[in-house]
Each structure stands twice: as structure tokens, then as C-alpha cells.
Amino acid sequence: MPVLVIAEHDNASIKGATLNTVTAALACGGEVHVLVAGSDSSAAAQAASRISGVSRVLHADAPHFDKGLAENIAAQVVAIARDFSHVLFPATAAGKNVAPRVAALLDVAQISDATKVIDADTFERPIYAGNAIATVQSTDPIKVVTVRSTAFEGAAPDGGNAPIDAMPVIADSGLSSFVGSEIAKNDRPELIGAKIVVSGGRALGSSDKFNEVLAPLADKLGAALGASRAAVDAGYAPNDWQVGQTGKIVAPTLYIACGISGAIQHLAGMKDSKIIVAINKDGDAPIFGIADYGLEADLFEVVPELVAQL
Ligand code: FAD
């Protein structure tokens, strides 16, 4: 039976985490089909059809799919799920919003945050904030899985030429409606998927200092900005910058932690980064335990120096 990937998209393009999810789907065996449920979303469906390894795109297009409301997307997924051995979602806010609903409606267990596909029934997933890896096996007829994107290489976004089939659309559930959103705009890369992340902690002391000290470094490096939970809770950085167990999981090529102590809940979100640089004035800070390069110094002195050198 084929494997179904639920695409994350903005109706015009496919989000990067979908590409990692396609790689995980290919490891499950079987053809990989991608569902694009959106509104005025032909461009997203076409982008999905070009993903390398995808055999078929299922396109459900209706105004009530515009904002990806969980109730409507889940109903569409459940309508076709029984034709598939697996239903895979990126383990992003959007995927995690829909997947549990799909699993419950199908009366199967969800496998959350898979980091490895051992075989079609068996997966690895982190537990205890990433301090242990559980191997889980499911005998459910349909496996509903969320996929940790940082654990799988992204499939090539080009090279495929899958046919696109228009799907019969499931009616609006009427259970929820979109009221509005306030989205902070910035020119920096998205935190998830960024090659370089500059992150700040409680040490920054204010949002003004975050902008004054860390933003120039991020701008010079073309990096995304991240933050510890302490910095977010104190209002120094927006909520969607939080890295860690209860924030975003990132694995950039370079992660620069400035004034972050290295609590396990923070490490859970960034320890798979390729190169970790830590700047902290306390030589005993736990972040130095996982850093490839550590600088024991006052960040307010050395970060501006670093910016000047770049
Ligand atoms: P602190 O621990 O206060 O560290 C500040 C660091 O800055 C210190 O090491 C200090 O030496 C250094 N410093 C101070 N001044 C300077 C200076 N001028 N120059 C250089 N260094 C300086 N945390 C997360 O980050 N992400 C999560 O997702 C998350 N989830 C959590 C979930 C749960 C259930 C719980 C209980 C906690 C969670 N936490 C999370 C919180 C976590 O335990 C820590 O409290 C938090 O990460 C600490 O943030 P921090 O490193 O910025 O602050």
C-alpha cells in the first residue's frame, strides 16, 4: 500500500518540513503520495508534484482549507486514509495540530516525533527531552506518524513529475472558523530550516538589547534568531523564537548560543546542530559541555567585536 504525506504549505509553495517527511515516507516502503489540501492551491500542488520520490499528488482544493483548520484537514485525511499503510505529518505546529485528530478518528495510536524508520512498523523517537531514544512498534493497520524534520534529509524539491489528481472535497465541518492572525514579518530565514541560528538567553536582559546586540550578528551571518524559554518568558523575544523541548527543534549547520546556560530543555531543541558555539561568562555553564567552540566572556563585549570583525 502507498504511504501518504500531508503537505505543509502556504497554498503557493511547499514548506521545507514536507521534504524531510517525504524522505521518512520513502523509508516506510511503498509509493509516496502527497495530499495538498488548500485553497487556490494549484501552485502548491505543482510544487509537490516536483518533489523527488513522490509518485502521486492528491489535491483537495476548497475555500474552507485556506487556513489549514485542523477539523477540516483531518476530515479530508480520514476520508482517504484507509487506502494507505501510513499517514505522515511533519512534526511542526501545523502537523501536530492535525495528526492526533486523524489518529483518534481512525482509532489508532499516533507515533509522535519519529527520528528514524527502522522498518514499516518500527520507529525510533526521543523521550525524556531527547535523553533516551525509544524504539516503538505498532501493529495498527494504519500508522499515523509525526516526523521530526531535523532527523531526515530533505527530499530534493525538484526532479519529480508526479501526476496531480483532484480529490472529491469533504464539506466544511463548521466546527471552527478562522478569526485572524498577527504574524510578525522579518527578512530573516525561518528558524526551522535555517542554516545558521543566533540564539539569546536571559542574559540579554531586555528586548532592546536582543535587537541591539544579537540582531546585527544574525544579519551579518544571514541567520535566524532564536531564544531560550527564559528570554521568551521575560518578553525579550517572541514566543515563536523559542528553541527547546517546548519550543522549536532545530539542527542548523551553526548554532551560536549567547548568554544561555544550557538547561537540558534547551539542549533538547538544538543539540543536533552541526557546530555549536557558546558565549557565556560562566566557565561552568553546562552549555560548554556540548559546545564545539566555547568563549568564556561577556557577550555584551564580544558579540559587537565579532560583528565588527565579520
Ligand atoms: P539562565 O539559566 O538564567 O542562564 C543565563 C546564562 O547567561 C547563565 O549561564 C549566565 O552565566 C549567562 N550570562 C549572564 N550574563 C552574561 C553576559 N553578560 N555574557 C555572557 N553570559 C552571560 N528552556 C528553553 O530554552 N527551551 C524550552 O523549550 C524549555 N522548555 C522547558 C520545559 C519545561 C517542562 C521546563 C521545566 C523548563 C523548560 N525550559 C526551557 C527552561 C529551562 O529549564 C531553563 O530555565 C532555561 O532554558 C534557561 O534559560 P537561559 O539559559 O536563558 O537562562
Summarize the structure.
The chain is an alpha/beta fold and 310 residues long. It contains eight helices and 15 strands. The structure holds flavin-adenine dinucleotide.
Q: How would you portray this structure in words?
A:
The chain is of the alpha/beta class. The chain folds into 2 domains: 3-166, HUPs (Rossmann fold, 3-Layer(aba) Sandwich); 196-309, TPP-binding domain (Rossmann fold). It has 8 helices and 15 strands. The strands form 3 sheets. It has a 7-stranded parallel β-sheet with strand order 5-9-4-1-2-3-10, with helices on both faces. Helix 7 links the parallel strand 13 and strand 14. The mean pLDDT is 96. It binds flavin-adenine dinucleotide.
Explain the layout of strands and helices:
Elements lengths: L2 E4 L9 H12 L4 E7 L3 H8 L4 E8 L8 H12 L4 E5 L2 H14 L3 E5 L1 E4 L2 E6 L4 E6 L5 E5 L16 E3 L29 E5 L6 H15 L2 E4 L1 H5 L20 E5 L5 H4 L7 E6 L12 E4 L2 H11 L1
Helix pairs in contact: 3-4, 5-8
The site of flavin-adenine dinucleotide has 28 residues, from helix 6, helix 7, strand 14 and helix 8.
